[in-house]
Amino acid sequence: MPGIKDAKCVLVLGATSGIGRALALAIHDLDTAPTVIVAGRRQERLDELAKQGERIKTARVDINTSENELKGFVQETLSKFPELDAVIFSSGIQHVFDFTKPETIDLSKFQDEITTNYVSIFKLIVFFLPQFLKLSDEGRPSFIIPITSGLSIVPFPRVANYCASKAALHSLDISLRTQLAKTKVNVIEILPPLVESELHDHQGITPALAKAWMPLDEFTKNAMEGLIRGDPQVAIGTAAKTVSKYEQDKQETVQRLHDQISAITSSN
Ligand SMILES: NC(=O)c1ccc[n+]([C@@H]2O[C@H](COP(=O)([O-])OP(=O)(O)OC[C@H]3O[C@@H](n4cnc5c(N)ncnc54)[C@H](OP(=O)(O)O)[C@@H]3O)[C@@H](O)[C@H]2O)c1
Question: Closest by alpha carbon to 158, among 96, 201, 206?
Answer without folding.
Answer: 96
